[in-house]
Amino acid sequence: MSKPKNQCSKGHGTPKAKERDQKVCIRFKCSVMNTLTDVLRHRPGWVEVKDEGEWDFYWCDVSWLRENFDHTYMDEHVRISHFRNHYELTRKNYMVKNLKRFRKQLEREVGKLEAAKCDFFPKTFELPSDYHLFVEEFRKTPGITWIMKPVARSQGKGIFLFRKLKDIMDWRKLGLCVCQDVGRPDDQKDDIAVENYVAQRYIENPYLIGGRKFDLRVYVLVMSYIPLRAWLYRDGFVRFSNTRFTLSSIDDHYVHLTNVAVQKTSPDYDPEKGCKWMIQRFRQYLTSKHGPEAVETLFQDMDNIFIKSLQSVQKVIISDKHCFELYGYDILIDQDLKPWLLEVNASPSLAASSQEDYQLKTCLLEDTLHIVDMEARLTGKEKRVGGFDLMWNDGPVSREEEGIDTSGTGNFVANTHLGCNNDRKKQLRQLFRSLHSQKKVTS
Amino acid sequence: MLQEEEDLSLTIAHIVQKLKGSRLYSQLERQAWVSLQKPEIKLESLKEDIKEFFKISGWEKKLQNAVYSELTVFPLPRHPAAPPEHLKEPLVYMRKAQGSWEKRILKSLNSMCTELSIPLARKRPVVEQKELLNKWNEMGTDEPDLSLFRPVYAPKDFLEVLINLRNPNYENGDHLNIKTHLGLIQVPLKVKYISELKEFFVELSLNTGQLGIDDATQVPPELFENEHVRLGQKVLAEQDSAAAQQYIRQGSPTALRAELWALILNVSNQPEDLLYYEQLKSNVIQHDLLVDSLIYKDVKLTASNDDYYFVFEDYLYQVLLCFSRDTSVLGHFAYNSASPPKSYIRGKLGMEDYAVFYPPNGVIPFHGFSMYVAPLCFLYHEPSKLYQIFREMYVRFFFRLHSISSHPSGIVSLCLLFETLLQTHLPQLFYHLREIGAQPLRISFKWMVRAFSGYLATDQLLLLWDRILGYNSLEILAVLAAAVFAFRAVNLMEVTSLAAAEAVLADLSTLKVMPLLQIFLFATVT
């Protein structure tokens, strides 16, 4: 994978970076309109490479990563869009484990108050391994609803709700069988392929708008884990369930799951309707209802979710300097305006469901590529690039100009602007103009 | 002098009479009786003491707000000898035009009725009543077969009627001259010149702070925004309608808007109001009206398909269905040029004793009607309050957008104002569009009829409606329409067909309303 190292600079114009063929993106089922290919093809100086050609940049999918990452040599400048073991954050069972461990660590080292900040994840148990622990918790709080989610599937597949243990009895028999019969011959083991599931406490009092449940999709870009550098994108969207929320119909998938993929199969799904709001609109709606302070607190709590979740896997993820990752965080808000983390996606959907959505995703991807900075234009000291704000740079980042403030000294305002005005075009113009003139001076 | 005094006393008498029948009067009476218990009230100076008590306890403010509300809404009787029709509409030819338009609408409604053999109204069987009550909060999930229903009329039908309006007393001559109006509206109504608009909208000028401009991210909030918010909170604390109306001319902070609008419209959520709303709800449950299907159809066609308002579908039904049962709305027909349609009990046609207004509130919805309610759902979440706010907005403003009258905020005047502004300040554009068969009013009419709801982004729309409330006038809609054309003038000069012009102006969702208005009014060389 070697490549001539004639990157930009020298003021010669376009760098000759190449990119991996995008057919891997088309393998994503939901790419009806492929925003990523559009963005990559339009980037000046970027050329698409087919099949076995050499590449400097690869937006790969996780299956390729799993098979090939370990035997791929990458030059220093090469970039790839996933971390080797991202599943520590994105698979529900691993994430729970990591978060629990981190919470204990915080409690030991800092105290109960700080550890309590990790309570944004509804009580979760891995099954079948934690089955008995789960039953204990289940019996403690009878009558509440639980949700069962397969660990590794996406788009809402395999999820169901239950209130009684007998609903999962049969499933459990299957699971325990396999656990106990470790000594069985191989072929028989394969017949009963049991997936890992997590059983999670279902949030029964979600915040409703127009009687509908919704969740938030927020984008976080992580450039490295050690040190931890994370960026938060200002735009995002709110996905509405197509039907009114009620606890009485837990069999109705369409009511409870807000994934667009599931909604698309709901009988009254109208693709023209686009059950999405931009986060800005949502933030304004909440402000007019609850006032700016309550909304500010809510968004600060969400910042806390992003940072704590990343910190919990910081030591576990292999921080390869070639890797970066764009995560899609799914957040649910309950009626007390408390945000809950539902899950983190390593491959958030890049397909666009409407013109507005297409706009959002192309801008998101463009800004991601600006930060990845294959063209080596940035100085590395930027706190904002387009719609991304630097949220964490080995420590909290303050909105103030003085740079990193130490937390705890009042008046610290985090450098995040989720749901705020995104005048990225203007900012990018100013940024690149000043960078260009700086380069002119120094070269 | 004498005439003015007479007018004033007439006005006072009028308002006193109106308020005497209101709830506020009985509340004040009760408060006065209660205050007699207080030690401060002495028999010798009873009148002054009670007045003082009212002032301190805030009741005077409430009375002030009520009086202000009456003054704002109800036009004053021009002349004691003027017949009531003059209050509705002083010009005879306008009244006639409105009358024939109404006849057409009714005919359309009646024919739909007979075609589909659906009664105008029927009592619901008990089973159906129970079902509806259960589903009250999610009527949007209902999928009745609405394919045979058509909206009674659409804005473009109404536009055709306005285009054909003529004043029989007015002769323009056959030859074109400098005074010829090139637009579609050909009636000689008085509309404001730009200099008059500048005076009228003086709070929107370049050196006054505005929300929608001076709260942009680059502007430090200390310059304007913080102070404005503080002022808003003070106004709310004082509970003064008139002050609120003045304040909101510079825009309302998001967090205060719901309360400010309620204060200006003098809407408070008293238990009696809740009771009234519940009564309306039970009327809906008990009787089914043909108009309900029209409402359903309209919501499904417009609001449900909007990217931002689809979420509020259920609220829209809850408000609009109740609205059509609300007979208190009939009061506004005293100053509306329109008249409520009458329906007769079967077999008793023409006998006034057996006449009822249909629908009970006298308002027949048209295509896009639900868009008047949709933006309000952003601010009010409690159905009875949402309902009251909408009703007040309707009887103060929205009714003027679909009835033929000479009122300066009436749709005819708005259209004329729009065309005049365009012809005077962008003559080349106007002429070009006219030549290619794209009369500007054909494009902007639908914006104005809906008060831009559904065309602008919600936050921009709310900033616009702030000003409608602040200035108690809809003229700003015409100014904005002209400002939009001015903004897109360069592209419009290059189009060669009506369809292309429509395309240039199809998407207004990215527009920022206040800068456009400011530039058009105050920063364009005239």
Can you describe this structure?
The complex is a heterodimer of chains A (443) and B (526). Chain A has 443 residues and is of the alpha+beta class. Chain A contains 15 helices and 16 strands. In chain A, strands 9, 10, 11, 12, 13, 14, 15 and 16 form an 8-stranded antiparallel beta sheet that branches. In chain A, helix 2 (35-42) packs across helix 14 (355-372), helix 5 (92-109) crosses helix 13 and helix 12 (279-290) crosses helix 13 (292-312). The longest helix of chain A has 21 residues, at 292-312. Chain A is globular and about 70 Å long. The two termini of chain A are 29 Å apart. Chain B contains 24 helices and 4 strands. Chain B is globular. Chain B has a two-stranded antiparallel sheet. A two-stranded antiparallel ribbon of chain B has the order 3-4.
Biggest sheet of chain B, open or closed, and with what strands and sense? Answer: 2 strands, antiparallel
Instruction: Give the fraction of residues assigned to helices of chain A.
Output: 25-40%
User: What is the number of E strands of chain B?
Assistant: 4
What is the SS-derived class of chain B? mainly alpha
Average of the residue pLDDT scores of chain B: 86
Going by helix content, strand content and strand pairing, the class of chain A is alpha+beta
| Most residues in contact: chain pair | A-B, 28 and 27 residues
Give the radius of gyration of chain A.
23 Å
What's the total count of β strands of chain A? 16
Estimate percent helicity of chain B.
Answer: 40-55%
Low-confidence stretches of chain A: 1-33, 176-193, 403-408
Quick one: biggest sheet of chain A? 8 strands, antiparallel
What does the overall shape of chain B look like? globular
The DSSP helix count of chain B reads: 24
Quick check: average pLDDT of chain A? 76
Envelope shape of chain A: globular
Oligomer: heterodimer
Q: From the alpha-carbon coordinates, what is the Rg of chain B to the nearest angstrom?
A: 25 Å
Order of helices and strands of chain B: HHHHHHEHHHHHHHEHHEEHHHHHHHHH
Strand order of the largest sheet of chain B: 1-2
